[in-house]
Structures are given as structure tokens and as C-alpha cells.
Write a structure and sequence with these properties.
Distance between the termini: 18 Å
Strand order of the largest sheet: 2-1-3-4-5-6
CATH topology: Rossmann fold
Strand content: 15-25%
CATH architecture: 3-Layer(aba) Sandwich
Helix content: 25-40%
Number of helices: 10
Largest sheet: 6 strands, parallel
CATH class: Alpha Beta
Low-confidence stretches: none
Oligomer: single chain
Shape: globular
Radius of gyration: 16 Å
Mean pLDDT: 95
Number of domains: 1
Structural class: alpha/beta
Number of strands: 6
Length: 244
């Protein structure tokens, strides 16, 4: 019997453990969540931190997986990296699930917001304000503490690299190389990368993309709506709903 495996790529300011609640709902499926360079346990990484380099790290993780069919799940920053990886048409990968992905074009961000984020590295007050702004569903104490801790332990070089360069990279020329289907999940109350941006900048550039809105949720879908995220992944890889 063939088996399924899922590789998880986290958001900016997150880590592999951002996926803990989703992975806990993935019984029977091989899962790997990695810390991208400069984040989580890899906070001390010297880089490089560009999208292609992060896709290299993700590609190496894919090759370690034992399952017959693989799926790439990426959130926000991790969504852009997932798109870059999928464009390489890696062996055994059957589909993408993108959670509020940073688009393949430059991520829309007001200059003032970018400057504030750059200045906010390592600040608990900034982390708390950011968490309050980007979430629409109240987080439990454990999820809140985890999200704040991950933001505060992100390496300075990686923090600056994403805000100054990675989020601005335009990899849209790679999108025609993506042949596998993609499900794009977006929060109905996402103020960071709203559903209309997902449809315009992501879905429209892919051959076979479906946008699914999670009502009431904000930007941190793995923490705000782990049940809905896990259900969407399972639906995509189930025999009845398998992306093909």
C-alpha cells in the first residue's frame, strides 16, 4: 500500500513547532517540519536566506522522506518557498497546500510597516503588537507563548533578509513550471495578505489552484485554525479528494 508524507514550511517569525497543533491531527501520515535558516533552532544560521537557498534546504528535507507520495505545505513566507520548490518539479510531490502564502511577486507591505518591523526585531512589545494585529482568533496560552518566543528568537540577519529582500523577490517567472495542483487557504479576516491578494497574485499564476477561505481566521492559520488546516490537508491527499 502506498503512503503519504507532508513537508511543512513555517511563516516569517515562526519555526517548525508552529505546526505542532496541525501535525498532532495528522495521525497515520509521515510529517516533517523544518526550521528554515535563521529561525527556530536554526536561528544562528549564517545564511544565505534568499528564497532559492531556503528552497534548497526544503528540497533536502523532501529527499529524506520515505513516503511514496509527498505534499508540500507552506505558510506565509514558507508558502513562497514552497512555490519555489514546487517549480523545480521534485520527484514524488503530488500537490501543494499554501496557507496565506507570501505571493511569488513582491509581498504588499507599506514602507512604514516594513520600517517598523525592521526596528522591532527582538522587542517583546513589537512581538505582542504584531501578534495582536495579525490574528483574528484568540490564541490559547500555549500557542501565544510559542508564537512570541519564536518571533523573539529569530536571528537578526534572517529577520532583515526577509523584510528587505526575500519578501520583495519576484519569482513569478517560475510559476508556469508548477504542474501540480495547489489549494490556497486564506483567513477571512487576514489583514496581512487578504484573500483578494491570494486570488490575484497567487491563484491566477498557477495552472490548477483552488482558494478556500477559512471564515473569521486571521493570518496565523496553523495556530488559529489547526482543525481546518489539518482537514484541508487530509482532504487534499485522501483517495477521494487527491490532487492529481
Amino acid at each position: 500500500m502506498s503512503s503519504d508524507g507532508v513537508l511543512f514550511l513555517h511563516h516569517f517569525g515562526g519555526s517548525a513547532r508552529s505546526w505542532d497543533a496541525v501535525i498532532a491531527r495528522m495521525d497515520g501520515i509521515e510529517t516533517i517540519a523544518i526550521d528554515l535558516p535563521g529561525f527556530g533552532a536554526a536561528a544562528a544560521s549564517a545564511g544565505p536566506f534568499d528564497v532559492a537557498a531556503c528552497a534548497d534546504i526544503a528540497s533536502a528535507a523532501l529527499r529524506l522522506m520515505a513516503s511514496d507520495r509527498l505534499w508540500i505545505v507552506g505558510h506565509s513566507m514558507g508558502g513562497k518557498i514552497a512555490l519555489a520548490l514546487a517549480a523545480r518539479q521534485p520527484y514524488r510531490v503530488g500537490g501543494l497546500v499554501l496557507l496565506a502564502p507570501s505571493p511569488p511577486t513582491a509581498e504588499p507591505m507599506a514602507p512604514g510597516d516594513r520600517d517598523a518591523a525592521l526596528a522591532g526585531w527582538g522587542s517583546l512589545a513589537h512581538a505582542e503588537a504584531t501578534l495582536a494585529r495579525i490574528t483574528a482568533v484568540p490564541l490559547g496560552s500555549h500557542a501565544r507563548a510559542l508564537a512570541l518566543d519564536d518571533m523573539l528568537r529569530t536571528g537578526h540577519a534572517a529577520w532583515r533578509a526577509w523584510l528587505e529582500a526575500g519578501s520583495r523577490e519576484d519569482i513569478s517567472a517560475l510559476m508556469p513550471h508548477i504542474a501540480i495542483p495547489a489549494v490556497i487557504l486564506c483567513g477571512g479576516n487576514d489583514c496581512v495578505i487578504p484573500c483578494n491578494v491570494q486570488r490575484r497574485e497567487v491563484a491566477s499564476r498557477l495552472r490548477n489552484a483552488t482558494v478556500v477561505e477559512i471564515p473569521d481566521a486571521g493570518h496565523l492559520l496553523p495556530l488559529e485554525a489547526p482543525d481546518a488546516v489539518a482537514a484541508a490537508i487530509r482532504a487534499g491527499i485522501s483517495p477521494a479528494g487527491r490532487m492529481a
